[in-house]
Design goal:
The chain is α/β, with parallel strands linked by helices. Helix content is about 35%, strand content about 15%.
Length: about 150
């Protein structure tokens, strides 16, 4: 999974223009390879991640152990609909990404709509094998309050 999603993850990181001071949340971080890249780019800020699988949390925590130890990275297990973070965790998050995970969210964007601050930039990446369809995605984003979208 780390290798198959890596190219798409790099593309989303570039699309979001993640910079050193950006606070970033990755939803569905898998084995943590993209989190590792993000934490190097957003080196002076906070990087958080949320995923439903305990196996992925374990793998990602091993891969990102040094950044977790310093408090730079915070990886949690939980669903997107019920984020396992305190209410103020996302006050500073200004960029959110998900790569090949949105298609398995029970309530698509309802969870994100409830925890993100205004002006948060979202980036989604889907590979051909993800099962996510593009039709309706813009409408789904608009339904939970996101106002602009850009698809290459």
């Amino acid at each position: 999974m780390a290798r198959t999603n890596e190219r798409c993850g790099i593309w989303v990181i570039e699309l979001l223009q993640i910079a050193p001071r950006d606070a970033v949340l990755e939803v569905g971080f898998g084995p943590g390879a993209i989190i590792e890249r993000i934490s190097k780019r957003a080196a002076t800020s906070h990087v958080a991640g949320n995923v439903a699988s305990s196996a992925m949390v374990k793998q990602a925590r091993i891969r990102n152990a040094a950044a977790i130890k310093t408090g730079h990275v915070d990886l949690r297990q939980g669903s997107v609909e019920d984020m396992p973070f305190s209410d103020n965790t996302f006050n500073k998050v200004n960029k959110v990404l998900a790569v090949n995970s949105m298609q398995v969210w029970a309530d698509a964007l309802a969870g994100l709509g409830g925890v993100l601050k205004p002006a948060t930039t979202l980036g989604f990446g889907f590979t051909a094998y993800s099962g996510q369809s593009e039709p309706g995605l813009t409408e789904l984003l608009a339904a939970v309050g996101f106002t602009t979208s850009q698809a290459p």
